[in-house]
Amino acid sequence: MKPTAIKTILAEFQELNRQRLDLDRQSAKLKVQCDALLDKLTAGEAGSGQYGPYLLSVAHKKVPRCTDWNGLHDFIRQEGAFELLHKRLTETAVMERINNGSHVPGIVVDEKVTYKVEAA
């Protein structure tokens, strides 16, 4: 690829990335504002119903939260209850073991290309 083509691609990338980051920041601010409004509904114990042109449906869902990781870890090991866990790796911890010479069964290390684009 010619340097001029790369320069054109990088310039377009920088502009689109700038726009995307601006939208991400705007979206994050709007999410905080939306969450604050939902918190007001929760604090006010709003119930399901029609409020003018708006229909509000309120549902309650039980969500587990761990307060004793050691106890949970022991339970999972003793019971073989690994289905309680998400099946995803902590990339940093796995790579740290591999880089220190440990063999981690069932793991294959793929190489991924990353690009860092900065203004010169």
Question: How would you portray this structure in words?
Answer:
- The protein is mainly alpha-helical and 120 residues long.
- It is built from three helices and two strands.
- A hairpin with a 2-residue loop joins strand 1 (49-51) and strand 2 (54-56).
Features:
120 residues, mainly alpha, two-stranded antiparallel sheet, 3 helices, 51% helix, flat
Write the layout of secondary structure elements.
Layout: H1 3-43, E1 49-51, E2 54-56, H2 69-79, H3 91-99
The biggest sheet, with number of strands, parallel, antiparallel or mixed sense and barrel status, is: 2 strands, antiparallel
* Counted beta strands: 2
Beta-strand percentage range: 5-15%
Strands in their spatial order, largest beta sheet: 1-2
Instruction: Please report the number of helical segments.
Output: 3
**Shape field:** flat
What's the rounded overall pLDDT mean? 94
Low-confidence stretches: none
Structural class: mainly alpha
Q: What is the CA–CA distance across the termini?
A: 20 Å
Helix content: 40-55%
- From the alpha carbons, calculate the radius of gyration and give it in angstroms: 24 Å
List SSEs in N-to-C order. HEEHH
